[in-house]
Design goal:
Blueprint (H helix, E strand, L loop, with lengths): L20 H9 L10 E6 L17 E5 L2 E4 H12 L4 H5 L1 H27 L6 H12 L5 H11 L3 H22 L7 H10 L5 E2 L2 E9 L2 H12 L4 H8 L14 E2 L21 E3 L2 E11 L2 E2 L2 H30 L3 E3 L1 H6 E6 L5
Antiparallel strand pairs: 1-11, 2-3, 2-10, 4-9, 5-6, 5-8, 7-8
Length: 355
């Protein structure tokens, strides 16, 4: 499927024309932030190609895209682009197709986020300072300690303040979405039964297990902990003290894990409940675990799968409502892009020897 050009290739404005245009918006809107690689990247703008834009004497302050009164400047766009492509190797980062795609993702993220912010402001939807701080506290609690949390931010090249702004926007987005979907009806009994009949694969379940596990980075640490458990050490206490996995605060007890999700867990589906595994290696570190609970696979009955089907169908309905809402907002907004300026932005990668 070819990439849809959402906005006219000039500095003029146009509105989104169809439902399919929104697919690119939504796809980029829900993407995850990229991790950073060792490459240093610099942005090079061919200023000669945009010299006709004399209205702004400072090139970095030129407007790349504007929606109503909100603007994204060349400097801001460059910073976002540099961060995004740092996850790629030098050849991929400089590839014209890759660069074009990443540029579009950044532009579309900006437009969609501004649609949400502007609608929220007009309709009195706000997020308080305390709400943001509570969510910050909750999310930081998912890390074993403050050092692990700061290391995670550093690996993404994100400051704490930038991270907090992201959380604030995420809460705002959630509130706007709640407003959009609040009047949607739940699926009827007839719709649920029809879905059960027409989509049998949705109700198939693979075997699942819940584990109590400890994950550490070094094999020597895993060996030490393994010996402590064999000597009668409390598994939950050791998990809370040493494990780097997010469930460490829950004494190492995981959510349900589906068979086939990760190689390191495959042995768990033959391990007797309560029996300790050997030390197992994965991309995340060294694991020690035991099975807490097990569910067999098979097809769910209609009653067993009712709530999952209801939630799934409602989610489809909600996403449809959001798509329609986004299209309506985009149609009523004045959106413009400086295509010459966007096309002029190039990337130069510097290897470690050039730092």
């Amino acid at each position: 499927m070819t990439t849809l050009q959402i906005l006219e290739r000039s500095t003029k404005s146009r509105f989104l024309k169809s439902q399919s245009d929104l697919a690119l918006f939504l796809n980029s809107f829900f993407r995850q932030f990229l991790l950073l690689s060792p490459f240093i990247l610099t942005l090079m703008t061919l200023f000669t190609s945009v010299s006709c834009f004399r209205r702004d004497p400072k090139p970095t302050e030129q407007v790349v895209v504007q929606i109503n009164e909100a603007q994204l400047t060349l400097k801001e766009f460059g910073q976002l682009l540099a961060q995004a492509v740092k996850s790629y190797d030098a050849i991929t980062a400089k590839d014209p197709a890759t660069l074009s795609r990443v540029k579009e993702e950044i532009l579309n993220d900006f437009i969609v986020s501004e649609i949400i912010k502007q609608w929220a402001k007009t309709n009195g939807v706000t997020v308080s300072f305390q709400e943001t701080e509570d969510e910050v506290k909750r999310m930081r609690g998912g890390y074993p300690n403050d050092l692990t949390f700061r290391d995670a931010l550093a690996s993404e090249g994100v400051s704490i303040e930038s991270w907090k702004k992201r959380i604030h926007f995420s809460l705002l987005q959630r509130k706007v979405f709640e407003q959009i979907k609040k009047s949607l009806p739940s699926p009827t009994e007839e719709e649920l039964r029809s879905y059960y009949t027409s989509q049998p694969e949705f109700f198939d379940r693979k075997p699942e297990v819940r584990l109590q596990q400890i994950v550490v980075k070094k094999k020597s640490d895993a060996q030490y902990i393994f010996e402590q458990i064999k000597k009668g050490g409390d598994f939950g206490s050791l998990a809370k003290q040493y494990s780097i996995a997010p469930e460490s605060e829950n004494l190492g007890v995981t959510d349900w894990i589906e068979k086939g999700s990760l190689d390191v867990f495959e042995i768990a589906f033959t391990l007797p409940i309560g029996q300790l595994s050997k030390i197992l290696k994965s991309p995340y570190g060294f694991h020690i675990y035991k099975v807490v609970e097990r569910k067999p696979g098979g097809k769910l009955s209609f009653e067993q799968g009712r709530e999952s089907a209801k939630s799934h169908l409602l989610n489809i309905r909600e996403q449809g409502a959001f798509t329609g809402w986004l299209e309506t907002q985009a149609r009523s907004s004045k959106i413009s892009r400086d295509e010459k300026l966007i096309d002029s932005i190039k990337i130069e990668t510097l290897g470690p020897s050039e730092k």
